[in-house]
C-alpha cells in the first residue's frame, strides 16, 4: 500500500506544483457546495489519479479540489467513498493517507446522518464528539506499517476537543442550531428499521450514518487531528417513522449546508490566529 500511496502522491505533486495543502476536507452526501467558497487553484478528477478509488454515486462529484479557504491552503474531497460501494476499508481510507503525505495538518469531515436523539431535529447540525463503530471491517486490519502509525492506536479522543469547543461557540454566535453528540457508523446502504433506530439510541448514539469513522480511525493512526460535523437530514425516533428517500436526504443536506459552511470557514480561519 505504501508504494501505491507514494505513486499517487508523486503524481498529485507533479500536477499541483509547489502548492502544499495544510487542511484536508472530506465532503459528505449533498454537501459538496463548500467548494464554491474555495479559491480554486487546481482540480483533479479521481479517475485521472493513479490508484485513487472512484466514487460510484451519481451525487458525488469525484474531484480533488486544491485552493484557499479562509486564508488556509486546503485540499477538499468533493465526493467520498463508502463501504457499501464495495470498496475495502483500505481503499476507502486511501485518500486520507494521501492527504496526510501531501502535508495536511488537520482533517475536517462532514456527513449527512439521521438523528437518533429526539432533541436533535431534521436540519440541525451535530458536531461529533465521539463515535461507535458498527461497520464489519477495520481499516487498520492486516499488517501494520510503522511508517504510518502504531499497531494499536489510542482512540480515547478521536475528535479534537479544542475544535469542537470553537465550532459550538461559532454556531452560538450565529444562532445556528448545533449540538454535540455521538455518531454511530453502520454499513448501509439501506436505512434503518424502527427497531434498529431504537437499538442505536440505547447503545449511546445521537446520529447514525454510513461513513466518517473509517477515515477518522486512519487519521488518528497517522496522528492527524480531526474535526467532524453532521447535517441531520432525517429523524429516526418517535412512534411512527416517516418513509424517507435519498432525494429528500440530499435536499435537506443542501438546505442546511450554508450553516455548516459558515462554521467550517470560521473554524478554519481560526487556525490562522
Automatic annotation (TrEMBL):
Quaternary structure annotation from Swiss-Prot or TrEMBL: Homotrimer.
One Gene Ontology cellular component: cytoplasm
Gene3D superfamilies, per database record: Nucleoside phosphorylase domain (3.40.50.1580)
Top-level taxon in the UniProt lineage: Bacteria
Species of the source: Mucilaginibacter auburnensis
Biological-process GO terms, alphabetical: nucleoside metabolic process
InterPro entries documented for this protein: Nucleoside_phosphorylase_d (IPR000845), Nucleoside_phosphorylase_sf (IPR035994), Pur_Nuc_Pase_Ino/Guo-sp (IPR011270), Purine_phosphorylase (IPR011268), Purine_phosphorylase-2_CS (IPR018099)
EC number: 2.4.2.1
Protein name per Swiss-Prot or TrEMBL: Purine nucleoside phosphorylase
Pfam family, any one: PNP_UDP_1
Family as reported in the entry's similarity comment: Belongs to the PNP/MTAP phosphorylase family.
Pathways involved: Purine metabolism; purine nucleoside salvage
Function (record text): The purine nucleoside phosphorylases catalyze the phosphorolytic breakdown of the N-glycosidic bond in the beta-(deoxy)ribonucleoside molecules, with the formation of the corresponding free purine bases and pentose-1-phosphate.
Keywords for this protein: Glycosyltransferase, Phosphoprotein, Transferase
Keyword Nucleotide-binding listed: no
Residue ranges occupied by any Nucleoside phosphorylase domain in the UniProt entry: 23-269
Top enzyme category: transferase
Gene Ontology molecular function, alphabetical: purine-nucleoside phosphorylase activity
Amino acid at each position: 500500500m505504501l508504494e501505491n500511496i507514494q505513486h499517487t502522491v508523486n503524481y498529485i505533486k507533479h500536477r499541483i506544483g509547489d502548492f502544499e495543502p495544510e487542511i484536508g476536507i472530506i465532503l459528505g452526501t449533498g454537501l459538496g457546495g463548500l467548494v464554491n467558497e474555495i479559491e480554486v487553484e487546481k482540480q483533479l478528477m479521481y479517475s485521472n489519479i493513479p490508484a485513487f478509488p472512484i466514487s460510484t454515486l451519481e451525487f458525488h462529484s469525484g474531484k480533488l479540489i486544491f485552493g484557499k479557504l479562509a486564508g488556509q491552503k486546503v485540499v477538499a474531497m468533493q465526493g467520498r467513498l463508502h463501504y457499501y460501494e464495495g470498496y475495502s476499508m483500505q481503499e476507502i481510507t486511501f485518500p486520507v493517507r494521501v492527504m496526510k503525505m501531501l502535508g495536511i495538518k488537520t482533517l475536517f469531515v462532514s456527513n449527512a446522518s439521521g438523528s437518533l436523539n429526539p432533541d436533535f431535529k431534521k436540519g440541525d447540525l451535530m458536531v461529533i464528539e465521539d463515535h461507535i463503530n458498527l461497520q464489519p471491517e477495520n481499516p487498520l486490519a492486516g499488517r501494520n506499517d510503522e511508517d504510518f502509525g502504531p499497531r494499536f492506536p489510542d482512540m480515547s479522543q478521536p475528535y479534537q476537543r479544542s475544535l469542537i469547543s470553537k465550532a459550538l461557540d461559532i454556531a452560538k454566535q450565529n444562532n445556528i442550531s448545533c449540538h454535540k453528540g455521538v455518531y454511530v457508523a453502520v454499513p448501509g446502504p439501506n436505512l434503518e428499521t424502527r427497531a434498529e433506530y431504537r437499538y442505536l439510541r440505547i447503545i449511546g448514539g445521537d446520529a447514525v450514518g454510513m461513513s466518517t469513522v473509517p477515515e477518522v480511525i486512519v487519521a488518528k493512526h497517522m496522528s492527524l487531528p480531526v474535526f467532524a460535523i453532521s447535517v441531520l437530514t432525517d429523524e429516526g425516533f418517535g412512534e411512527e417513522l416517516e418513509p424517507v428517500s435519498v432525494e429528500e436526504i440530499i435536499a435537506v443536506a443542501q438546505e442546511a449546508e450554508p450553516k455548516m459552511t459558515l462554521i467550517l470557514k470560521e473554524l478554519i480561519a481560526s487556525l490562522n490566529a
